[in-house]
Amino acid sequence: MKQITALLFLFISVNIFPQTYKFVTSFGGFNNAQSFNVSAAGFIYVTDTGTDAVYKYDTLWNYIEEDGGYGWDNNSFDDPFFVYATPLNIFVADKNNHRIVQYDKDLNFISLLSTRDGNDNDKAFGYPLSCAASPQGDLYILDSENIRILKFDLFGNFIQNFGGYDAGSYALAAPKKLAVSPINYIYVLDKDRIVVFDQYGTGAAEIKLNDSFISMNIVSSLLTVNTASEVYKLALNTSEKGMNKLTLSGPDEMPEIQASFIYNNKLYLLSQSQVLVYTTE
User: Do 92 and 79 form a contact (C-beta atoms < 8 A)?
Assistant: First the structure.
């Protein structure tokens, strides 16, 4: 109860303390990049809905490999809308195929999770927008068709759904992205707020935003949330009582931001065509 109370206080007290990040370099050459994520080892994965593919880059931002192409078989996508990386596995939300595709870290296909055509409505999901794994290995999926979150264990067994119409003030309205913190809280960017659930699906807190925010990530204990032109961060493992707006220095022509995260003191921004890398001044 103390932790939930702290979260509520933190989220109500949203302040802005600018921190400057300076542009260093960019990499990639995407058609319509939609999401990206980083593994604990520093490998970066990008999904491109223009090419229906997922790409892997090494710790020096060199291209390594890719997989995908339009289709319905195990190694194809129809709108790979989101990617999430663990040390060993990569999960892609294959939106229009209504499934989550699991790879190993080298983009070798492992399995598919698809429940939309089954007989159990409680575990059915369609048009997944986002997914993330907990430290315990549970997989959370943001289901945009039924406006809720589904939880599966590491073997793909359904556990529960939550955040639906019966969740009271924590019922999701127009969810956009999902992320899981190191202490197993589930954060959902939902229209003009971030809604927080505990690992059992109980609503814990919310932070008021506005509906211009389009993406959110958690890497380690740093949450980033962005509009098409602004990035904010929140340190989840400190007593910090405010969401910090980041000041971006360069490049001369700033593209629209699709997504963002902070890793090893560097800020990464995803545009439709490239990944931009920044360091603190």
Answer: no
Supply the pTM of this predicted model. 0.93
Cβ contacts of residue 2 below 8 Å, gap of 6+? none
Cα–Cα dist 35/48, whole Å: 7
Query: ∠ CA 178-211-277 to the nearest 5 degrees?
Result: 60
Q: Which residues have CB under 8 Å from 139's CB, separation 6+?
A: 91, 100, 113, 131, 132, 133, 151, 152, 153, 154, 156
Greatest Cα-to-Cα distance within the chain, rounded to the nearest angstrom: 55
Between the CA of residue 68 and those of 85, 129, 272, what are the distances in Å? 17, 18, 18
Backbone angles phi, psi at 37, to 5 degrees: -155, 165
Tens digit of each residue's pLDDT (9 = 90 or more) over 209-222: 988 999 999 999 99
Cα distance from N-terminal residue to C-terminal residue, the chain? 39
